[in-house]
Specification:
heterotrimer; A alpha/beta (212); B mainly alpha (222); C mainly alpha (248); B: 222 residues; mainly alpha; 9 helices; C: 248 residues; 7 helices; 80% helix; globular
Chain lengths: 212, 222, 248
């Protein structure tokens, strides 16, 4: 269970949001919405522990994440604006890197994964020579072999084509059905079954929570 | 745990070898800077051999400074630095691997071509041994110190000059002890004391710097 | 350490406390400075070797001491700030750095000015002067780093880390410079190290040191308050304060 209590975020002496409370339970997909510059990415950065809050804390399984970083990161998969794909390395090498540095299933055949994300035939070309969408797919390939319970995704659908969006959506739903948690921001309308789909609207400096 | 260390080093080396100019440029810079001194000061061998340790060390410092940008900048831009900070392994450990890879890529080549430059600057053989030894021990300290500076400035748009501003004053002791060792060797004195001092600093840097680098990264990436 | 205090009460409280302490520091500074400077410059006996030019120690020595004291303050504040995550301590680091840099500059300038009659040159690579110069570089690095961040919370933390790195490094720098100096200069006598000092000279010196120290305290508090206001400008208590000032 991911939880945050009284989270206040101040960036460059400007308050982005105040005293935000949030609970996401296993099996839920939380979609954070709001206009540009309202602090969606900042909120995700706080949830991952990449940045620290002005006040308030984030809890994972009832424990402060700052007190148990390494345990928390065993459960966390984060995908930011920047995909984390190294331009000089090939798709396959990038995937191997992800597999070794983050909690992953070790018995997965990476060629199968590349097949699933549609990168077979490109596996030995440096990522720099691939298109933006293909680079994004390398980053998304992680989701097929990760063992992390909590996925935090910042605009995962950017530069993907329709087909890739569809399969990513399916992947997210499947993850939630298996008891995982997904927190994501996107401007895309999602077709996710309502049972475990939550929305959070961020508005300027005040926060309202709407659960759909 | 150790596998992860190897993996990070391997990845960095692989990426660097696919992008060779990044390794070669600092080395050329180093050679050119050293060449400038005889051109500016005249070719008197006694003068050259006297200033050689200082020149080579200052040039190594500047070359290191140039290459430091690359230590975290590429990773910062493509987001893999962010990812590294979210890895379940201790950040200080991963960061040490990156510094090692960086040292292998930038300082080791300087060490290897230093005989050539010693000939350029008419350095005697005893002094040259001392110089190689100080480079071998001193450059890792430089890499560790520099990594702290890079970690502090990596998120800034104009971090380059700031990096030299914060890093150069801190590297003064290394410069002093190294050149003093070489001078002692050149005049036939025992220089082991200086080398041991440098070694002590290296041990200190290896134990403390990774934590400072990790803390600095946590500030820069947020 | 200060964790039990509610983060919202802390800043406001410290602002008021600093405001209350400030005048006391100033009250201590002014008389000791006036007496010390008049006594030192006009009434203390001249040095039998250096004549009247030795009187610059009444500025140089206190400034050099306070340059170090300011750095120690910063190091302690940085340690507290990073270990216990006290934001106010990180602000103190940022507030102190420019003051320390100015003291260092004064020490450096007066040291060089003293060198002119003593050594016959404005600048001599004396171990102390060189160390002070490097200390000034370190201060400048910290200030530049602080100013480079647009988010002041991060800036304070970055400056604190650099301060701590510096505090480990500064003794090594000083030691290496002293060693380098003795090797390169042979037996130059350091003019700043008097074997003993006459009581009539010592008392005004101590008074000057005291006044410089209290002034350092005053300036730190002053800048700390400014820093607080600037950082917390979005908070209600600052807004209230400003409105009250405008009305009154």
């Amino acid at each position: 269970m991911l939880e945050c209590k009284d989270l206040t975020c101040v960036r460059e002496q400007r308050v982005l949001f105040k005293q935000l409370n949030l609970i996401v339970k296993p099996g839920e997909i939380l979609h954070i919405e709001g206009p540009n510059g309202v602090g969606k990415s900042s909120l995700l950065a706080l949830l991952t522990g990449l940045s620290s809050a002005y006040s308030g804390d984030v809890y994972w399984q009832q424990q402060k994440i700052t007190a148990q970083r390494e345990t928390y990161y065993q459960d966390l998969l984060y995908l930011g604006h920047k995909s984390g794909v190294k331009a000089e390395l090939t798709a396959l090498e990038n995937c191997q890197g992800f597999q070794r540095l983050y909690s992953s299933q070790t018995d997965v055949d990476l060629y199968d994964v590349l097949l699933k994300v549609g990168l077979v035939g490109y596996e030995d070309i440096p990522a720099a020579q691939l298109s933006a969408g293909q680079q994004r797919r390398i980053a998304l390939a992680r989701m097929y072999f990760t063992e992390c319970k909590l996925w935090i995704l910042d605009e995962p659908f950017t530069s993907l084509d329709k087909e890739a969006i569809k399969s990513l959506e399916t992947c997210l739903i499947k993850h939630a059905q298996q008891g995982g948690i997904v927190v994501l921001t996107t401007h895309q309308a999602l077709s996710i079954p309502e049972a475990n789909y939550k929305k959070l609207f961020l508005t300027k400096a005040t926060v309202e929570e709407h659960y759909v | 745990m150790f596998n992860v260390f190897i993996q990070v080093v391997r990845q960095d080396l692989l990426a660097a070898f696919r992008h060779q100019s990044a390794i070669l440029n600092p080395i050329w810079f180093f050679i050119i800077v050293v060449t400038l001194f005889p051109l500016g000061l005249g070719t008197d061998p006694t003068l050259l051999s006297r200033i050689a340790p200082g020149v080579i060390w200052v040039a190594a410092l500047l070359a290191a400074l140039l290459s430091f940008e690359r230590l975290f900048k590429d990773d910062y831009i493509d987001g893999s630095l962010e990812q590294m900070m979210l890895s379940p392994y201790p950040l200080a450990w991963l960061v040490s691997a990156k510094v090692l890879a960086h040292w292998l890529l930038t300082s080791l080549p300087i060490l290897i071509i230093s005989p050539l430059l010693a000939i350029f600057l008419s350095l005697q053989i005893d002094a040259f041994y001392a110089l190689s030894l100080t480079l071998l021990i001193g450059t890792p300290i430089l890499s560790l110190l520099g990594a702290i500076g890079v970690a502090l400035t990596v998120g800034l748009r104009k971090g380059g000059i700031l990096l030299s501003l914060i890093m150069l004053p801190l590297s003064i002791p290394i410069l002093i002890f190294s050149t003093m060792a070489v001078e002692a060797a050149a005049s036939g004195q025992d220089y082991l004391g200086f080398v041991l001092l440098l070694a002590a600093m290296l041990v200190g840097a290896i134990t403390l710097a990774p934590f400072a680098i990790a803390a600095a990264l946590r500030v820069s990436i947020s | 350490m200060l964790k039990w205090l509610h983060p919202y009460a802390k800043a406001e409280h410290s602002y008021a406390l600093a405001g209350k302490l400030m005048p006391w520091f100033l009250i201590l500074t002014i008389p000791s400075f006036l007496v010390g400077i008049v006594w030192g410059l006009a009434f203390a006996p001249a040095d039998y070797q250096q004549g009247d030019s030795f009187r610059i120690i009444y500025i140089h020595v206190p400034a050099a001491m306070m340059a170090m004291a300011a750095y120690s303050t910063m190091a302690i504040a940085a340690f507290v700030g990073l270990v216990w995550q006290v934001r106010l301590a990180e602000m103190a680091v940022a507030a102190t750095a420019p003051i320390g840099a100015v003291y260092t500059f004064i020490a450096l300038f007066t040291g060089a000015a003293w060198g002119k009659p003593m050594w016959g040159a404005w600048w001599v690579w004396d171990a102390r002067l060189t160390s002070e110069l490097i200390l000034l570089f370190v201060y400048m690095g910290i200030i530049a780093l602080y100013n480079a961040f647009s988010d002041k919370v991060l800036a304070g933390r970055a400056a604190s880390i650099l301060t701590l790195v510096g505090v480990i490094n500064l003794p090594i720098i000083h030691f290496s410079v002293v060693w380098w100096n003795t090797l390169h200069q042979g037996a130059t006598i350091t003019k700043f190290e008097q074997p003993s000092i006459a009581t009539e000279m010592l008392i005004p010196l101590l008074m000057m040191i005291f006044s410089f120290a209290t002034f350092l305290g005053f300036m730190i508090l002053y800048r700390f308050r400014n820093e607080l206001l600037q950082r917390e400008q979005h908070r209600a208590w600052v807004v209230k304060l400003v409105q009250a000032k405008q009305r009154g």
